[in-house]
Amino acid sequence: MSKKGKAKNTVNKAKHTRLMKQKENKLRLEKQRTKERLKAIIKKVNEQKENDSSTNN
């Protein structure tokens, strides 16, 4: 005989996949933000180096 009523784990599985996707998206965004932040810092330092070297010459 088959079970009656709602399927056993469908609600929990849906919640789990939603939460896991949120977590993955959060990690992806954090990595992207850190990369952008580092690029900005490197760009700023390089500009300062160029300005220092041009004022010293």
Mind sketching the topology for me?
Elements: H1 10-56
How would you describe this protein?
This protein has one helix spanning 10-56. The protein is mostly helical and 57 residues long. The protein is rod-shaped, with a radius of gyration of 25 Å. 82% of the residues lie in helices and 0% in strands. It is built from one helix and no strands. The longest helix is centred in the middle third of the chain and has 47 residues, at 10-56.
- Mean pLDDT comes to 89
Largest sheet: none
From the alpha carbons, calculate the radius of gyration and give it in angstroms: 25 Å
Write down the secondary-structure element order: H
Structural class: mainly alpha
Query: Which blocks of ≥5 consecutive residues have pLDDT under 50?
Result: none
Helix percent band: over 70%
Shape designation? rod-shaped
For the terminal residues, how far apart are their CA atoms?
89 Å
Count of discrete alpha- or pi-helical segments spanning 4 or more residues: 1
